[in-house]
Specification:
Elements lengths: L12 H16 L3 H11 L10 H6 L6 H11 L5 H8 L9 H6 L8 E3 L2 H11 L2 E5 L2 E5 L1 H6 L7 H5 L10 H13 L5
Antiparallel strand pairs: 1-3, 2-3
Helix pairs in contact: 1-2, 1-4, 4-5
Length: 188
């Protein structure tokens, strides 16, 4: 059963991440009262504030880890996850910032956009391409897009991860690619 430990002060970033994972599991729970409590907590975020708990539960598959991390940060009195990390004096390794990554390309590419991961994955399996998350959406691009960003689309790690940044077949391949992209200046 999920727990609501907002009153207790976390002692580490790891503990905050665990709390975020529990909140996400609570939201996805088949137990209605547990899922509703989690939805109420998520309504603290501007992206979900206008939704009723029922409406939020109807689109719970769109809730991402970044959302539950933001809730945990707010519940601890911080404006953002980054602020909470700083307050706890802990640093995480840099991660790929997909917004920065994709904002740098101003070329004309016909990417396929999807509101759900399931739709994006089905399209990627049918037509191919490189699947990425972007805010609340997902998109599939081609090798030319990556080349324009200075990224090697023929790197063997793309195939090892199934060309899927969201759920890589081989997480270690994604980690290696992420480090290469961070080295190119695409860190958060």
């Amino acid at each position: 059963m999920g727990t609501d430990s907002r009153a207790e002060t976390p002692h580490s970033l790891r503990e905050c991440k665990v709390r975020a994972s529990i909140l996400l599991k609570d939201l996805l729970s088949s137990e209605p009262s547990r899922a509703t409590r989690a939805a109420e907590r998520l309504r603290a975020l501007p992206a979900f504030a206008r939704l009723t708990p029922g409406e939020l539960l109807a689109r719970k598959e769109s809730v991402r880890r970044k959302h539950v991390l933001a809730v945990i940060a707010q519940e601890q009195g911080h404006a953002s996850w980054a602020e909470l990390k700083q307050a706890l004096g802990e640093k995480e390794p840099p991660q790929l910032d997909t917004e920065t990554f994709f904002a740098r390309n101003r070329g004309a590419f016909l990417n396929r956009w999807f509101s759900s991961y399931e739709e994006a994955l089905a399209s990627q399996r049918a037509i191919g391409g490189y699947l990425f998350p972007f805010r609340e959406q997902f998109f599939i691009t081609d090798a030319g897009f990556l080349t324009a960003l200075g990224v090697d689309p023929s790197d063997a790690d793309w195939a090892r991860m199934g060309f899927n940044w969201v759920e890589p077949l081989e997480p270690a391949a994604r980690a290696r690619l992420e480090q290469k992209l961070i080295a190119l200046g695409y860190a958060s």
